[in-house]
Write the structure tokens for this entry.
Amino acid sequence: MDFADKLAELKEKILKLKDQVETEEATKTAFVMPLISTLGYDVFDPSEVVPEYTADIGIKKGEKIDYCILKEAEPIIIIECKHWKENLDGHTTQLHRYFHATKTRFGILTNGIVYRFYTDLDEKNKMDSKPFFEVSLENLNESLINELKRFQKTQFDLDSIVSSASDLKYSKQIREILSQDLKEPSEEFVKYFASKVYEGRITQKVSEQFKGIVRKSCKHLISEIISERLQAALNTEKVMATSEEIPEMKEEEVSVGKKGIVTTPEEEEAFRIVKAILVKEIGLSRVFPRDTKSYFGVLLDNNNRKPICRFHFNGTNKYLGLIDESKNEERFPLETLDQIYNYADKICKTVSFYEEA
């Protein structure tokens, strides 16, 4: 089972059990320890994972960190845990103290569902006030999973993570600023655009006038971008046959050992996403890949008569082919692979057709 599949299983466990998890200790056992294990660390090996790790701070002795992950006997990640119902805002004080005391480079604050990752980008050996990365196990996508992979035992590389942490932290903050300014333009945002188009002096009155103009312009631009994408999708569907009868796959089309068929990393990643979607519906051992020269197919029970979906990735544009009850295929354009999750209900419904039959 790959990393994405393990995360999908943990997500289902959280959704199923969280109402029964009533304490912080239970949160650690049910949710946090499994995530540490999923990252490849042995939670029962004290040379790798130490619960209640001692971090003496000045004259304060016996301060305890919930978990400390070690590499060559040195702390590389410390984890402070809260109950899953707790909002993490306002709970960084302890982690901040522990971060300085242990000389680690990464601190995690979590309630077992949301994980906030901190480092020391602003000042060495002093934990930043804002996380560089945040992820909720209830709302995963391809890009978030790829960032989490960096913290796996087999892939952990300090310099690489620190380098990417800088990009993640500042790009997140820039997106937040842009999002806020697009909704309610700040004075600096308004003055920037006014200075580009207005030749006179930008007084307070001019600034107020442009505030409304900038707000409207941003709304119109966003609406136009959305409309263009929707129209492009509609045009694509018109050009293509909206549904086509699916012929059975012939054995000579199967990718195993056949000349001219290459399974790409994108097809492999898309197949893993479909498996993650189906993990709560059927056993993963029942989901099979079938690569052909024209598309990559996903089958139930390795049966050509039970296609679940298809990936059409060989052209300039990428499409997800979904199968209906009559075994007709409808194709949907994909800009990113994580958009496959948007069709999770349709994929599960296709499987249910075969199960009911």
The CA atoms of residues 256 and 315 lie 21 Å apart. The first helix runs from residue 3 to 17. The radius of gyration is 25 Å. The chain has a mean pLDDT of 86.
